[in-house]
Write a structure and sequence with these properties.
Helices cover about 40% and strands about 15% of the residues. The protein is of the alpha/beta class. Helix 1 crosses helix 11 and helix 2 packs across helix 11. The protein is globular, with a radius of gyration of 21 Å.
């Protein structure tokens, strides 16, 4: 059977989460996320956020989290500034545009926005009222190419947003990987302080499903429950989401699992580099983007699943490999053994 490096949610859920779901299965609870497990999970998350004491809502998916965060925050004529590689731009089937909001795309620098790129977008979209008004800045951490925002970078973007009256949304699909990375200097408390709304991804860190939307900005909290309900995101059995986050944050499991995924990526990245292959982006979290000859890719595809991301030249392509909380050293070493085998490739 092939091993998949396609993503970090090919497996089901961490055994601790499955055990908790089974143990609490017959315990009656209040519906719609007002259960004891969801309340406990919110309290645990808030403990990481200092004095911010934000509103926290659990939803089923990342696309849903982005739709809710953006559509609830913007008026009909307001737009989003996002990197051209951003998930809402290239991986969500126009979900944000379907809510009536334009996305203003900016060329990313290693997957990231910068204050200068945001200023350029503002200047290019200032012919009012003939253009949609930029109002919200969208970033991801980790980014879609696995890179990290440093604390000074996020502080600079946050300061610009507040100076220009912009809202800042951080997509946290892989926030666990970002916060657990060796180079990371941010905390959940920092993010709660520097953003207006963000979300903490559970799906990619051992949960069956689920993301936690966090709203530090009090002005964005009014009537959020109505938006949740109207978008079909208010689950009768919201306990299922809350319980999973309780397990993830009760004893640090969330960070342990994310750290393991990063460690497996580092092992894989080091082996690929030792074999003489290059990368299009530095491996900072659990996503790797090595460049392989097409003949080698065909050989590897016999035993492993992974994405061929884009062509590099006529003979080679950029690939994407993703490690997860469940990736084993043996699986990484098996992949490395295959790339060390002699394969006939063009030169």
């Amino acid at each position: 059977m092939k091993h998949s490096f396609l993503d970090d949610y090919s497996e089901g859920a961490h055994p601790q989460i499955l055990a908790a779901l089974a143990e609490t299965n017959m315990v009656q609870q209040t519906a719609y996320g007002d259960d004891v497990y969801s309340r406990a999970a919110r309290d645990m998350l808030r403990q990481h956020m200092g004095e911010a004491a934000p509103d926290i809502w659990f939803v089923a998916s990342g696309t849903l989290a982005n739709i809710l965060a953006i559509s609830s925050a913007l008026r009909p004529h307001e737009a989003v500034i996002a990197p051209a590689s951003g998930h809402i731009v290239v991986r969500e089937t126009g979900a944000i545009e379907a809510t009536g909001h334009k996305i203003i795309t900016v060329p990313p620098e290693k997957g990231k926005l910068t204050p200068d790129s945001i200023k350029a977008a503002l200047e290019a979209n200032a012919h009012f009222p003939h253009m949609a008004k930029p109002r919200l800045v969208y970033i991801s951490n980790a980014t879609e190419v696995g890179t990290l925002y440093s604390k000074p970078e996020l502080e600079a973007i946050s300061a610009l947003c507040r100076e220009r009256g912009l809202l800042l949304l951080l997509d946290g699909a892989r926030l666990g990987a970002a916060l657990s990375a060796d180079k990371n200097d941010l905390t959940l408390e920092d993010i709660a302080e520097l953003t207006d709304i963000f979300w903490v991804g559970g799906t990619k860190v051992g949960a069956l499903l689920g993301e936690a939307i966090v709203i530090p900005n009090p002005k964005l909290r009014d009537d959020f429950a109505f938006h949740i309900k109207q978008r079909g995101a208010l689950l009768a059995k919201g306990r299922i989401l809350g319980l999973q986050f309780r397990e993830l944050f009760r004893d640090g499991l969330y960070f342990d699992l994310a750290h393991h995924a990063n460690a497996m990526a580092a092992r894989l990245s080091a082996g690929i580099a030792e074999a003489g292959y290059e990368f299009v982006a530095e491996t900072e979290t659990n996503q790797l983007f090595p460049i392989f000859p097409n003949d080698l890719i065909a050989h590897l595809k016999k035993s492993f699943d992974f994405y061929v991301w884009e062509p590099h030249n006529v003979h080679s392509s950029v690939t994407r490999l993703v490690t997860s909380w469940a990736t084993k050293e043996e699986q990484v070493d098996a992949f490395l053994a295959e790339i060390r085998n002699p394969v006939s490739v063009p030169v």
